[in-house]
Structures are given as structure tokens and as C-alpha cells.
């Protein structure tokens, strides 16, 4: 017999019999428990993530052509719920300096020293920083990219923009402050 999970795609979950609902949930639980516990390393948090994911899934399950397509979608939903968990709990935030993530972007992160949890956290933070950068005024975005991506000095930036070093320092300060405000709104304190 095929997977009971595929029934989610074609039927209204709430209209199914309680026994079938239980079997679908148990199969979903078995399907996602291992990857979640591997990332979160906390049984209670894993249980919460599974339950919240399942509720989200039964409320918005798309029509899938086959079981593989449905399982791929389920994995995406669960992965996003794990990311949300890391954002909400702010685990190990004190160990990652938000300014150094952008400045030292080219420095490779040692996978031996960093746990999977830290890697996920760093990826989320980097994505958030990129989003914040894209939301800045174009002038500020250009200054930040010249300073930290291209690693130009104040003098080199001033020459390229045909302005003074003092003006570059002032505008770069304003750009960093705008970036910090935007980042704080998205990421939290």
C-alpha cells in the first residue's frame, strides 16, 4: 500500500475518519522527526515544530501530481518552520556578531568547528543582511558594497565617487546606521 501522506493532497483532512487522520499524522511524524531533531537537538522543540508544521500543512496543502512532489513540498514547509524556530528562539545569537558576518563574508566558516545549527543561523543571518541591503537607498547600498564587498578605502571611494573622504565617511556612517535599523527590525535585538 502507498503512503497515506499522499491522501493530504487529494482530500479534505478534516473530513477524513479520525483513525485515518491519526495514521496520516503518524506517517508525517516519522517522515520529518529525524531531520528536525538533527538540526534542533531538542525533543520538545522538535515535537512543537512537527505539530506546527502539520497544522500549517493541513490548512494549505496543494494538489500534487505524485507522492514525490508532495514530499518535496512537505520538506520545504518543515525546513521553513525550523528556520522560524531558530529566528524566534534566537539560539546562539551572542556567538555570531551581526556586523562581522557582512565584513568577513569571504572568510570560510569551518564546518568542523561549527554545528549545523550555527550554519543554519549564519545562512539565515546572511540572507537577512542581503535583504536589508537591497532595501537601503541606492546611494547607501553602493557605499556599503564599495567599502565591504570591494574593500575600497575611504580615499578610493571618494576618488571613484568624485567627492571628499569626509563626505564618504559621513555617508557611510549614515548607511551603516540605516542598515543596523533595518536589520534590527527583521532580526530582533
TrEMBL record:
Coiled coil: none annotated. Residues 24-90 form the RNA polymerase sigma-70 region domain. Pfam families: Sigma70_r2, Sigma70_r4_2. InterPro entries: RNA_pol_sigma-70-like, RNA_pol_sigma-70_dom, RNA_pol_sigma70_ECF_CS, RNA_pol_sigma70_r2, RNA_pol_sigma70_r4_t2, RNA_pol_sigma_r2, RNA_pol_sigma_r3/r4-like, WH-like_DNA-bd_sf. Gene3D superfamilies: 1.10.1740.10, Winged helix-like DNA-binding domain superfamily/Winged helix DNA-binding domain. PROSITE patterns: SIGMA70_ECF. The keyword Transcription regulation applies. It comes from the Bacteria. One of its GO terms (biological process) is response to stress. Belongs to the sigma-70 factor family. ECF subfamily. This is RNA polymerase sigma factor. It comes from Paenibacillus pinisoli. The lineage of its organism: Bacteria, Bacillati, Bacillota, Bacilli, Bacillales.
Amino acid at each position: 500500500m502507498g503512503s497515506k501522506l499522499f491522501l493530504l493532497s487529494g482530500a479534505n483532512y478534516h473530513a477524513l475518519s479520525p483513525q485515518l487522520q491519526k495514521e496520516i499524522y503518524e506517517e508525517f511524524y516519522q517522515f520529518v522527526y529525524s531531520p528536525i531533531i538533527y538540526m534542533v537537538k531538542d525533543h520538545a522543540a522538535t515535537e512543537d515544530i512537527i505539530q506546527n508544521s502539520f497544522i500549517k500543512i493541513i490548512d494549505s496543502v496543494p494538489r500534487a501530481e505524485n507522492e514525490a512532489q508532495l514530499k518535496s513540498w512537505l520538506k520545504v514547509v518543515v525546513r521553513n518552520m525550523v528556520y522560524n524556530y531558530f529566528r524566534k528562539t534566537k539560539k546562539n545569537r551572542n556567538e555570531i556578531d551581526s556586523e562581522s558576518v557582512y565584513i568577513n563574508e569571504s572568510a570560510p566558516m569551518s564546518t568542523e568547528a561549527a554545528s549545523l545549527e550555527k550554519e543554519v543561523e549564519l545562512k539565515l543571518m546572511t540572507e537577512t543582511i542581503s535583504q536589508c541591503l537591497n532595501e537601503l537607498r541606492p546611494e547607501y547600498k553602493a557605499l556599503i558594497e564599495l567599502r565591504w564587498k570591494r574593500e575600497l578605502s575611504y580615499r578610493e571611494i571618494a576618488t571613484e565617487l568624485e567627492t571628499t573622504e569626509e563626505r564618504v565617511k559621513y555617508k557611510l556612517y549614515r548607511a551603516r546606521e540605516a542598515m543596523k535599523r533595518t536589520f534590527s527590525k527583521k532580526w530582533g535585538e
